[in-house]
Amino acid sequence: MSDTDSQAAVNGSAAPDPVLTVVIPAFNEAVIIGATLAQVRAAAGRVDGVVQTIVVDNRSTDATAALARAAGATVIAEQRTGIAYARNAGGLAAAGQTLVFIDADTVFPADALARVAAWACTEDDAGRLPVLPG
User: Fold this and answer.
1) How far apart are CA 120 and CA 129, in angstroms?
2) At a CB cut-off of 8 Å and minimum separation 6, what does 82 contact?
3) Residue 99 bridge partners (DSSP)
4) What DSSP state is assigned to residue 124?
5) Are 92 and 58 in contact (CB under 8 A)?
6) Angle (nearest 5°) at CA 96 between 95 and 101
7) pLDDT greater at residue 15 or residue 9
8) What is the tens place of the pLDDT at every residue in 41-96?
9) 127: left (phi over 0), alpha (psi -120 to 50) or beta
10) I need a labelling partner for 58 at 20 to 30 A (CA). Which of 24, 80, 91, 109 fits?
11) Euclidean distance between CA atoms 123 and 93, whole angstroms
C-alpha cells in the first residue's frame, strides 16, 4: 500500500485513481530495480496526481520482487515466461488512466512522467503516442 493509499484508508475515503501507471516487467533485476524505482519515484513527484508503480516479477530467482516491494512498488507475479506476458499482466493490473511501460534498466529524464501526464490530459493529442526526446 502506498503512502497515498494509507492516508486515504486513515481518512476513511477511497484512494484517488492514478493518473499514470508505470509498469516495469522484471526478470532477475535485483541489481538495478532499486535505482530504477528511485528514478520513477522522483519523476512521479513532479506529476500532478497519483502515479501507480507496478513491477511484474517474471519468475525471478533473485530478490527482485522483495526489493521492489521494499521500494514501495506493487509487485505482481507472472508465471508465464516472456516480456510480453509480463507487460500484459501489468497492463491488466493497472488502474491509471494512462499506462507507461518501461524496462527495469530504463533511464529517463526526471520530468518524463510529468510530460506524459501533461500530454495525456491534452484532448487534441488523445490517441497519439508521443516520442519524448531524452
Assistant:
1) 9
2) 58
3) 21
4) G
5) no
6) 105
7) 15
8) 999 999 999 999 999 999 999 999 999 999 999 999 999 999 999 999 999 999 99
9) left
10) 109
11) 25
